[in-house]
# Entry
Amino acid sequence: MVSLSFDRDFNIESGPAMELSPLVRRVLADNPGPFTFKGTASFIVGRGEVAIIDPGPDSDQHLAALLAAIRGETVSHILVTHSHLDHSPLARRLQAATGAALVGYGAVTRPESSDSGLPRLDASIDADFDPDIRLRHGEAVTGKGWTLEGVFTPGHMSNHMSYALAEEKTLFCGDHVMAWATSVIAPPDGNMGQYFASLRLLLDRDDALYHPAHGPSRAEPKSLVRAYLVHRKMREDAILARLKAGDRSIAEIVKANYADIDPRLHAAAGLSTLAHIEHLIERGLVRQDPQGPLTQYFAT
# Structure
């Protein structure tokens, strides 16, 4: 059995740039929290002519730290893995300071409404994000001594793009795969079916190292991806078991299946449960009854 274990040994300070390899430096933003762990990592790729991946939240302190880290260098590209508020908002201010082109998969429209009855996480979407270069899967941007190829990994968000550094067989995987915790899949923009497919996509690649946007890096990453797939399958099995036992609401399922997690994460757990249920409905394993004030769910 493949088991999912987490690495929370990540005692680094925000601000100073940390050299991770000949081509990669990391600058940690000062935005710790239950979803961001110790903060959002921005990555500087290259020497002299560089790219910055995930500029981070709109923070004067983090902007100053990034500009200090690249003093005397030229920034050609600013790449964003996805447009959550802890990843993309600083992009425009960093672009104004450096003249770099803004790169990403594309913009996301914040949904107008949701009938799930759950708290909304789409308020965390950066509605102003709109890249200058809309990269597609397999396309690349290049600089002096480095190549960053887009690896489209939707699921956590519909515009989630990872970036592969060919010269070091490294993948900057944003929030798609992390070593410290699982990724939240939050409808209506998050999609569990897409997330499963994006995980399987990574198993066909030969990346030797992952740099997530939160928490520590991960060598020999395929074992982590396999563990993610097993974990998500176990979550779906547990949801089906609760429905067969008589649970009819997401709140009942979360109470039973997430009793051991931080209560601050229960809303996110409810959204991930909804994402799993939508995936089960797509495959005909669950049906929903829209009658009454709250939607009820039944195993088929």
In short: Residues 14 and 28 are 5 Å apart (CA to CA). Helices lie at 60-69, 91-98, 192-203, 222-245, 250-257, 266-282. The domain at 230-299 is CATH 1.10.10.10 (Arc Repressor Mutant, subunit A).
